[in-house]
Amino acid sequence: MLEIVRAGGWIMWPIILCSVVAMAIIGERFWSLQKKNVVPKGLVAQVWKWVKEGKLDKKRLSVLRNHSPLGQILAAGLANRQQNREIMKASMEEASNQVIHELERYLNTLGTIAEIAPLLGLLGTVAGMIRMFAAVGEVGLGNPMVLSSGLSEALITTATGLSIAIPAFIFYRYFQSVVDELVLSMEQEASKMVNILYGEREQ
Q1: Predicted model pTM
Q2: 7 within a domain of the structure (yes/no)
Q3: DSSP per-residue string spanning 104-141
Q4: Which domain holds residue 167?
Q5: What is the domain count for the chain?
Q6: In this structure, is residue 4 part of a structural domain?
Q7: 11, 98, 112, 197, 199 from 82: Cα distances, Å
Q8: pLDDT by residue (tens digit) across 14-37?
């Protein structure tokens, strides 16, 4: 492995750095975007139970706010439950924007890595070709080692850049779809909470 890095030249180091950052982001997002942590089952039912029993005080609202992203949205709306439906929904939407921003954390970085890794590989290719032609100009075509070292640098950086960019792009799109699904689930749960609360009031 170290020999491959050496053969690829100095450009391999930023490419390797991109791979390390991409792996760290992928691992962190897999952990953070688990549905059970973002949209816990039964949370709306539990909150509704607190409301009916008159137990939804400031302490429970604080616990709810720190419980999960869905809890943060519900707490924002329930803090204004004495107001009309539109104010409650506006509070939830504002909290939802903050939650979505958190769910999308690091995804732009992952997408950027997917874009720049092949460019770094291309830079390595150009650097390898320049090195090869410069050496040919000095010693001529009689030494095949000169050609092989330049070509290996060019090909190794290109292959490495692509091998990082392709999975980074795949996981970037995957996590985007996961976030979209989670946002839809949270919107449905929040809407359910509003409908239950104001449906009870209307009755």
Answers
A1: 0.82
A2: no
A3: TTTHHHHHHHHHHHHHHHHHHHHHHHHHHHHHHHHHGG
A4: 38-202
A5: 1
A6: no
A7: 61, 23, 45, 10, 14
A8: 999 999 999 999 999 999 999 999
